[in-house]
Amino acid sequence: MKKILIVDDEEEIFLFLRRIVENKFGFEAVWADNGLKAIKALEKTRFDAVILDVNMPVLDGIETLKIIRRSNEFSELPVLMCSSESDRQKIIEIISLKIMDYILKPIVFEEAINKIGKLFK
User: Is 121 helix (H, G, I), strand (E, B) or coil?
Assistant: First the structure.
């Protein structure tokens, strides 16, 4: 069974995405509510992909993604960003860090299904 790490400081977003990941795809979803917890989870457990929020406390999504991409072990890990971020410069920076796609909040159910599905094609 594939395992996806969902990193978002809002539990409601995690629960929404978990429902998609588990019910539509049959994958296991694990939650981290900030980037530091995500990095620790990646060091302990093998994940097949990460869904990562941009704006979070402790360690934001961009810094978390930079750490992931600098790691030899995780440099090719599929990452799907999820955020309401609309700042053009931040979006350009995010894209330059080799993400698979970007889900804009508020999340549209069908869009999330399509983009999560593309992680494994």
Answer: coil
Helix and strand numbers, DSSP H then E, in the chain? 6, 5
Q: What is the pLDDT along the chain (121 residues), one digit of tens a residue?
A: 999 999 999 999 999 999 999 999 999 999 999 999 999 999 999 999 999 999 999 999 999 999 999 998 988 999 999 988 777 888 888 888 889 998 989 999 999 999 999 887 7
Reference 61, options 87, 88, 42, 79; nearest CA is 79
Q: Residue 18 has what DSSP assignment?
A: H
**For the purposes of burial, counting CB atoms within 10 Å of the CB of 14, is it exposed (0-12), middle (13-18) or buried (19 or more)?**
buried
What single DSSP character describes residue 107? P
User: Can you list the domains of the chain with their CATH numbers?
Assistant: 3-118 (3.40.50.2300)
User: Residue 75 is encoded by which pair of tokens?
Assistant: 């440099």
Q: Is 26 left (phi over 0), alpha (psi -120 to 50) or beta?
A: left
